[in-house]
């Protein structure tokens, strides 16, 4: 169900927890699965449940509790912009407006070419670098002026 | 103004990409405290004593005395005990733990090692905020480095002290910063806070005695051991020992982290952050992260940055996130965004928070969009009363306090919104 | 103990006790939703907030530990303000649709809202709407009403042992659901309906059929498994509308199995027989009672004259009452036949001559929770005894070790310490190994009656581990399950298990298959003189044929069957060890009288019956069941008999009168009971599992070792086929547990036979064959095929644990 490489990563995560606490690795396992598959299908969650010896509903609880799991298909690049107050005071809303204009989509929408999905984020713990955003959960971009946004979109569109 | 003392960020050169590495840390007196403890076989009680003396208070938000917390751990306990570092920094406005981990990860590791030694703990986890993935990866590398150098693992530096440390990442849930939600999350569940008592010291991770501290709290410990608790205390004020990193954000010229001794006047801090952006007037400031009550600018300008002074002024030092708002800020809009945050981040298990945060947000949203009523202000206050102090965890309080403070200090502005269906600013 | 005060009243609770415990003791009601005495504490509803002296804020009574000297106020200003605040929050998103809600009238939220809610709402925003979920045929949802108390989730995790429901999402978007596309399939699932304090989870079969205040509540006792669950039966216009648990801490606690809860649908089945019927010239006709009973009496007289009284056989199900079974055997014996039995699924009767009393659980049900080690032999535990399985899970959670010897490895939803999953014909040798191991461990001799049989046995590691587990952890118990009781070498299994228990100083019990398995013995519905042969004198009329002999299962070649049968509450084509032979024997008889609540489709179809007498199910008659722990529980009818149905005890009484037999002058069922039971109804002196000096047969080559070559069938009884009522409970028949049977076999066997999953094969036993798809289960022992019995689709097959052959079709 998951690639050998992903399984290896999950197995590594499992070494962090006591042998009878496999469930502790569920967050990493889901993140690893999502990296491989793009989003978490029912089958993927079921697989993770089986792999970690958990009830599948318990996996689903986790997958739906944490914001960064994608439970629906999304664009190739998920762009999550923090709009919380500190960032808003330093231009987050302007950055969002720029994205809307450039991509023609709002939050939770995906461009018709399936390239970009725009998401509203909560505090990322980088408020000093506002506006900040995440590309596909893992790459953080700071001080996102309109120019830098244009640059980013250009790079990603390549 | 004299150059403020620095502990956590001292000697760093952020432009150097190898800044964080073990060898660089060792050049900054890294792992000296640990070596000293292990070679001199300092009794664990002595260490806790030293931390108590330092008046180090938890940097995660509640400001609980760290030495006292450490002394709660059962000493004679036979089974496993755990040490957990709360690096799930998600309180809006706070971004200090990220810098500690990016630039000084070994200081955190050493702090945890010392804590583990002091409390007789053999395994620990560092729970890293999900959105700062590169920092998680850096922590993974730093832990590998420490392990390879014999600072982590079995028989550390040839002693009979062993400690395993692992990083665990979050994946987007503010509530996991709450310590018991974090433990649930570590156990592979939803991050739903537990009712206390029992406290983690008796029933923590996997039901075992556990101590949880914030990243910044742990990071301060090596210095305390190297220089003594008294020295640390003297850096700050009585009951407010040491330095503290303040994350300054919002309408300032140089947002960023500033480490200063506790008790430093707010005005000094503001100056360090380059002063108000565009030279505008300070309208309000949230001095301790978004969960804390806002204070009007003039009150703030009279206040020193330490736990007791800020409490006296009517707010809390919290996590040390200083959100600066100038006179262009619409307070209704600011509150609307904050209320939305708590509404979105409520874990949903307890009634007042699950139902109340949404209600609060909807009312503020209504006011902001010109559909408010004058009674709404009292209703907001009353709902805040019905949430605060009635929930399982302090998120309920965190949602309620900003509402009350905003209405208290900026009632006119809210009333204007209701009456004129638009902004005052 | 911790002493403190609530509302000025002193109370003391044990260490770790809570404020709620204290309040419960004092009878002070603190409003609550999430708290439930049998579940872990969640403290999430916040309804139970109370004031505690010196505490800066109100505290939840359910989770706040009692402290010495603490002063609690449950009705102070602070407490009531807090409670009202919570109630307001609970109501803002709750639809106020009580008039159309099924929970209306028994809703905790509705009740409390009257006391704590405000008259008008300050909430003017749009209410939340939550999509409903399909949780299967038993539970209906209206999730918008959910107040997130998580009782249902905790029930699954903590009691049912399987987490099927969870709370997904977070904050206001949190909702209770099952994993995508899944339903709730636990055999205890219906309890969440009781647990849900609002109308979010309600009974699907009951839904919209009545308002709760229209229902009257009557007490009753479950007629299904041997536990004897206490029931509340709710009725409207002489119809059973719903069954709820009646709390009894010593039996079912506050729970019910789904079988106990939803079987009532079978009472209202279309198939109910409401008038007597006689087959004349091959055609069934309804008739009046007089005609029917005379037909029966004349038929019996004819047979007795023609073939002798011994050729009359009486078979009654152990789901029948004590009174019914007693009169059944009295009738047969009065006619001169001791061929009476209730053990239609038993196949090994070698122990009969050595039995010392009625086989029973060997201990009180409640003490199962305290066991520290158990050996369960031959049982589909969860399905046969859902609440005993829960007790065992509870024990395991508290440190007990569970050991299992079984031909199947179904998930018991708890930790199994040692398991021996062996073919049916290897169960005896496995037990012999354990006996050997336990004797070695204790340094005692193997008892004489097993010595020879065990001479070639040597104990495996598993056997040693099981022996040590039983020996080292006390209290311990050894239990014989239904499957073992049906096993062709039941006598040996029972004897060996008894020795194991004795040597390891463990309790020994036989898990009662039916509600009245113990009572059936006590009523003497057995073909041999038993517990009070001397006291009841001539009642027995000597030794008769047992069920197996009566139904011609012993020796297919000879015509051993009876010439006349009285069947009470039985469908032999589903209820006997070998339905193929049973039907054949019945068909060959001159007279088959079926006393049944149902127009037994098969009986008519198979065409073996001659007369059908409509008798009352447990809800329409008074009677008594004696549960597996030996508890005598009498009950009254809760509704009038349907149509011309009559209580079976009355029918038998009248039959006795018509046949002019002595001692059939009862006016009430209580009089019948008084004839059977000693004063005070204490039957403990008659309970005895000992098998006297019965010798164990040589381990590998017992006479009954029918399935030792070729493929063996594992033919357990599926949960919702066990008795006549549940077979007709429509909603239960739509559950996963009632899914169409498959031929389960290990992959190795599939390979050997060249079969694929889902491939339809022909299964043959004796002269019968059925077609069925193949399914793979690698946990089954080699050369075994698991094909359930007691199911219409397998009724053409033979013995439950006999040889079976497979052919590709
Ligand atoms: C809603 C909520 C969010 C919190 N978030 C954080 C956090 O992000 N980081 C943190 O260190 N503490 C956070 N805390 C505080 C922790 O619960 C806990 O008090 C702290 O980790 C203890 O460490 P300390 O004593 O070193 O401060 C939060 C508390 C609440 C109620
Ligand atoms: S206060 Fe909110 S976040 Fe905390 S436990 Fe209750 S619902 Fe969850
Ligand atoms: S009953 Fe105490 S919080 Fe629900």
Automatic annotation (TrEMBL), chain A:
SUPFAM superfamilies: Thioredoxin-like (SSF52833)
The entry's keywords: 2Fe-2S, Iron, Iron-sulfur, Metal-binding
Cofactor(s) needed for function: [2Fe-2S] cluster
Domain of life: Bacteria
Residues engaged in binding [2Fe-2S] cluster: 82, 87, 123, 127
Cofactor note: Binds 1 [2Fe-2S] cluster.
Molecular function in Gene Ontology: 2 iron, 2 sulfur cluster binding; metal ion binding; NADH dehydrogenase activity
Pfam families: 2Fe-2S_thioredx (PF01257)
Catalytic activities: a quinone + NADH + 5 H(+)(in) = a quinol + NAD(+) + 4 H(+)(out)
Gene3D superfamilies: Glutaredoxin, NADH-quinone oxidoreductase subunit E
PANTHER family named in the record: NADH DEHYDROGENASE [UBIQUINONE] FLAVOPROTEIN 2, MITOCHONDRIAL (PTHR10371:SF3), NADH DEHYDROGENASE UBIQUINONE FLAVOPROTEIN 2, MITOCHONDRIAL (PTHR10371)
Family stated for the protein in its record: Belongs to the complex I 24 kDa subunit family.
Protein name: NADH dehydrogenase subunit E
From TrEMBL, chain B:
Keyword flag Flavoprotein: yes
Keyword 4Fe-4S appears in the UniProt entry: yes
Stored Gene3D superfamilies: 3.10.20.600, 6.10.250.1450, NADH-ubiquinone oxidoreductase 51kDa subunit, NADH-ubiquinone oxidoreductase 51kDa subunit, iron-sulphur binding domain
EC identifiers of the protein: 7.1.1.-
GO molecular function, one term: 4 iron, 4 sulfur cluster binding
One Gene Ontology term from the biological process aspect of the record: cellular respiration
Summary of the function given for this chain in its UniProt record: NDH-1 shuttles electrons from NADH, via FMN and iron-sulfur (Fe-S) centers, to quinones in the respiratory chain.
Listed name of the protein: NADH-quinone oxidoreductase subunit F
Organism: Nitrosospira multiformis
Higher taxonomy: Bacteria, Pseudomonadati, Pseudomonadota, Betaproteobacteria, Nitrosomonadales
Automatic annotation (TrEMBL), chain C:
Domain 2Fe-2S ferredoxin-type stretches: 1-78
Cofactor: [2Fe-2S] cluster; [4Fe-4S] cluster
Alphabetized InterPro entries for the sequence: 2Fe-2S_ferredoxin-like_sf, 2Fe-2S_ferredoxin-type, Mopterin_OxRdtase, Mopterin_OxRdtase_4Fe-4S_dom, NADH_UbQ_OxRdtase_75kDa_su_CS, NADH_UbQ_OxRdtase_ferredoxin, NADH_UbQ_OxRdtase_Gsu, NADH_UbQ_OxRdtase_Gsu_4Fe4S-bd
One Pfam family, short name: Fer2_4
Note on cofactor: Binds 1 [2Fe-2S] cluster per subunit.
Swiss-Prot/TrEMBL GO biological process terms: ATP synthesis coupled electron transport
Residues of the 4Fe-4S His(Cys)3-ligated-type domain: 78-117
Role of this protein: NDH-1 shuttles electrons from NADH, via FMN and iron-sulfur (Fe-S) centers, to quinones in the respiratory chain. Couples the redox reaction to proton translocation (for every two electrons transferred, four hydrogen ions are translocated across the cytoplasmic membrane), and thus conserves the redox energy in a proton gradient.
Family of the protein in this entry: Belongs to the complex I 75 kDa subunit family.
UniProt name for this protein: NADH-quinone oxidoreductase
């Amino acid at each position: 169900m998951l690639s050998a490489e992903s399984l290896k990563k999950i197995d590594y995560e499992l070494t962090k927890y006591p042998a009878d606490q496999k469930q502790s690795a569920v967050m990493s396992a889901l993140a690893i699965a999502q990296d491989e598959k793009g989003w978490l299908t029912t089958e993927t969650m079921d697989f993770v449940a089986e792999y970690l010896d958990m009830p599948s509903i318990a996996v689903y609880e986790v997958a739906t509790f944490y914001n960064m799991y994608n439970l629906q298909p999304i664009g190739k690049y998920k762009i999550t912009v923090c709009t919380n107050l500190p960032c808003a005071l330093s231009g987050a809303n302007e950055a969002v407006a720029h994205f809307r204009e450039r991509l023609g989509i709002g939050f939770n929408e995906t461009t018709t070419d399936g390239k970009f999905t725009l998401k509203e984020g909560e505090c990322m713990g980088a408020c000093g670098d506002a506006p900040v955003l995440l590309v596909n959960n893992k790459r953080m971009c700071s001080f996102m002026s309109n120019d830098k946004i244009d640059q980013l979109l250009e790079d990603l569109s390549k | 103004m004299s150059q403020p003392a620095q502990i956590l960020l001292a000697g760093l050169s952020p432009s150097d990409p190898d800044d964080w590495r073990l060898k660089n840390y060792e050049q900054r007196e890294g792992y000296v405290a640990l070596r000293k403890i292990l070679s001199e076989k300092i009794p664990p009680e002595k260490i806790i004593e030293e931390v108590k003396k330092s008046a180090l208070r938890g940097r995660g938000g509640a400001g609980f005395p760290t030495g006292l917390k450490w002394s709660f751990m059962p000493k004679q306990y036979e089974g496993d005990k755990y040490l957990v570092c709360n690096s799930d920094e998600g309180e809006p406005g706070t971004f200090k733990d990220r810098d500690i981990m990016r630039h000084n990860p070994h200081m955190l590791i050493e702090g945890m090692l010392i804590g583990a030694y002091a409390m007789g703990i053999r395994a620990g986890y560092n729970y890293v905020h999900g959105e700062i993935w590169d920092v998680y990866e850096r922590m993974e590398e730093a832990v590998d480095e420490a392990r390879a150098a014999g600072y982590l693992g079995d028989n550390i530096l040839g002693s009979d002290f062993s400690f395993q440390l692992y990083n665990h990442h979050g994946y987007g849930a503010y509530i996991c910063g709450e310590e018991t939600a974090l433990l649930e999350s570590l156990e592979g569940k939803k991050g739903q806070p537990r009712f206390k008592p029992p406290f983690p010291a008796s029933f923590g991770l996997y039901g075992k005695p556990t101590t949880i501290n914030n990243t910044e709290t742990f990071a301060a410990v090596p210095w305390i051991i190297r220089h003594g608790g008294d020295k640390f205390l003297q850096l700050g004020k009585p009951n407010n020992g040491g330095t503290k990193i303040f994350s300054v954000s919002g309408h300032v010229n140089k947002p960023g982290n500033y480490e200063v001794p506790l008790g430093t006047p707010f005005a000094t801090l503001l100056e360090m952050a380059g002063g108000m952006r565009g030279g505008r007037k300070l309208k309000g400031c949230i001095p301790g992260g978004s969960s804390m009550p806002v204070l009007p600018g003039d009150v703030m300008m009279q206040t020193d940055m330490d736990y007791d002074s800020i409490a006296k002024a009517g707010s809390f030092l919290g996590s040390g996130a200083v959100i600066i708002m100038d006179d262009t800020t619409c307070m209704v809009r600011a509150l609307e965004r904050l209320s939305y945050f708590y509404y979105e981040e409520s874990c949903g298990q307890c009634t007042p928070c699950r139902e109340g945060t949404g209600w609060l947000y909807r009312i503020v949203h209504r006011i902001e969009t010109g559909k408010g009523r004058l009674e709404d202000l009292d209703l907001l206050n009353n709902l805040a009363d019905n949430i605060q102090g009635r929930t399982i965890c302090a998120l309920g309080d965190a949602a309620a306090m900003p509402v009350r403070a905003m209405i208290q200090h900026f009632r006119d502005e809210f009333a204007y919104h209701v009456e004129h269906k638009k902004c005052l600013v | 103990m911790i002493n403190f005060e609530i509302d000025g009243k002193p109370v003391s609770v044990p260490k770790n006790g809570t404020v709620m415990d204290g309040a419960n003791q004092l009878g002070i009601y603190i409003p609550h939703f999430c708290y439930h005495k049998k579940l872990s504490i969640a403290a999430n509803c916040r309804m139970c907030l109370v004031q505690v002296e010196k505490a800066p804020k109100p505290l939840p009574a359910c989770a706040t530990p009692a402290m010495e000297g603490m002063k609690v106020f449950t009705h102070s200003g602070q407490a009531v303000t807090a409670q009202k605040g919570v109630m307001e929050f609970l109501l803002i998103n709750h639809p106020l649709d009580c008039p159309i809600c099924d929970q209306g009238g028994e809703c905790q939220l509705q009740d409390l809202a009257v006391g704590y809610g405000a008259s008008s709402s300050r909430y003017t925003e749009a209410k939340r709407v939550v999509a409903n979920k399909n949780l299967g045929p038993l539970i209906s949802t209206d999730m918008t009403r959910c107040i997130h108390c998580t009782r249902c989730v905790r029930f699954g995790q903590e009691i049912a042992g399987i987490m099927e429901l969870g709370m997904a999402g977070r904050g206001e978007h949190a909702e209770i659901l099952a994993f995508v596309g899944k339903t709730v399939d636990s055999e205890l699932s219906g309890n969440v309906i009781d647990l849900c304090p609002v109308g979010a989870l309600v009974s699907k079969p009951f839904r919209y059929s009545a308002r709760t205040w229209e229902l009257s509540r009557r007490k009753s006792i479950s007629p299904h498994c041997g536990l004897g669950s206490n029931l509340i039966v709710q009725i409207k216009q002489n119809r059973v509308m719903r069954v709820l648990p009646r709390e009894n801490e010593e039996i079912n606690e506050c729970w019910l199995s789904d079988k106990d809860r939803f079987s009532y649908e079978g009472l209202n089945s279309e198939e109910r027989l409401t008038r007597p019927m006689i087959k004349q010239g091959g055609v069934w006709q309804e008739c009046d009672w007089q005609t029917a009973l005379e037909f029966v009496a004349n038929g019996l007289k004819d047979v007795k004259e023609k073939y002798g009284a011994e050729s009359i056989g009486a078979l009654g199900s152990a789901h029948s009452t004590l009174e019914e079974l007693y009169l059944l055997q009295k009738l047969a014996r009065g006619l001169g036949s001791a061929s009476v039995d209730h053990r239609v699924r038993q196949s090994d009767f070698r122990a009969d001559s050595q039995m010392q009393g009625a086989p029973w659980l060997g201990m009180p049900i409640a003490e199962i929770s305290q066991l520290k080690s158990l050996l369960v032999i031959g049982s589909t535990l969860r399905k046969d005894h859902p609440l005993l399985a829960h007790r065992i899970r509870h024990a395991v959670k508290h440190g007990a070790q569970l050991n299992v010897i079984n031909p199947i490895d179904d998930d018991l939803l708890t930790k199994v310490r040692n398991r021996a999953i062996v073919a049916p014909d290897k169960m005896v040798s496995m037990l012999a190994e354990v006996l050997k191991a336990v004797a070695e461990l204790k340094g005692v001799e193997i008892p004489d009656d097993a010595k020879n049989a065990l001479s070639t046995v040597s104990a495996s590691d598993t056997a040693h581990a099981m022996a040590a587990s039983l020996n080292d952890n006390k209290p311990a118990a050894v239990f014989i399950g239904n499957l073992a009781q049906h096993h062709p070498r039941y006598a040996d299994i029972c004897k060996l298990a008894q020795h194991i228990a004795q040597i390891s100083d463990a309790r020994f019990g036989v898990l009662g298959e039916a509600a009245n398995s113990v009572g059936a013995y006590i009523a003497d519905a057995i073909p041999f003189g038993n517990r009070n042969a001397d006291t009841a004198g001539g009642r027995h009329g000597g030794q008769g044929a047992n069920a197996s002999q009566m139904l011609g299962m012993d020796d297919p070649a000879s015509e051993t069957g009876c010439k006349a049968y009285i069947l009470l509450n039985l469908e032999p084509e589903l209820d006997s060890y070998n339905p193929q032979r049973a039907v054949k024997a019945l068909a060959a008889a001159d007279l088959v009288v079926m006393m049944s609540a149902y127009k037994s489709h098969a009986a008519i179809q198979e065409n073996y019956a001659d007369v059908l007498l409509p008798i009352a199910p447990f809800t329409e008659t008074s009677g008594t069941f004696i549960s597996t722990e030996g508890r005598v529980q009498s009950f009254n009818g809760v509704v009038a008999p349907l149509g011309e149905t009559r209580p079976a005890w009355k029918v038998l009484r009248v039959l006795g009168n018509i046949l002019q037999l002595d001692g059939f002058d009862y006016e009430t069922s209580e009089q019948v009971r008084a004839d059977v039971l000693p004063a005070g109804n204490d039957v403990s002196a008659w309970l005895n599992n000992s098998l006297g000096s019965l010798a164990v047969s040589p381990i590998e080559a017992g006479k009954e070792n029918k399935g030792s070559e070729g493929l063996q069938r594992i033919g357990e009884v599926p949960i919702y086929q066990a008795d006549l009522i549940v077979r007709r409970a429509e909603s239960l028949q739509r559950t996963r547990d009632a899914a169409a049977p498959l031929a389960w076999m290990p992959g190795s066997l599939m390979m050997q036979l060249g079969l694929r999953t889902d491939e339809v094969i022909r299964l043959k036993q004796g002269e019968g064959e059925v077609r069925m798809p193949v399914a793979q289960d690698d946990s089954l022992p080699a050369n075994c095929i698991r094909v359930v019995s007691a199911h219409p689709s397998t009724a053409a097959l033979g013995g439950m644990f006999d040889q079976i052959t497979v052919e590709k079709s």
